[in-house]
Amino acid sequence: MPSWAPSRTSPANREPPVKTVTLLATNNAALNATSAVCLALGLRALRAGDRAQHRRWMLSALGASALFLVSYLTRVLLYGSVPFRGAGLLRGFYLALLGSHMVLAMAVVPLALRVLWLSERKQRFDDHKRLARVLFPIWMYVSITGVLVYFMLFHLPV
Question: pTM of the prediction?
Answer without folding.
Answer: 0.87
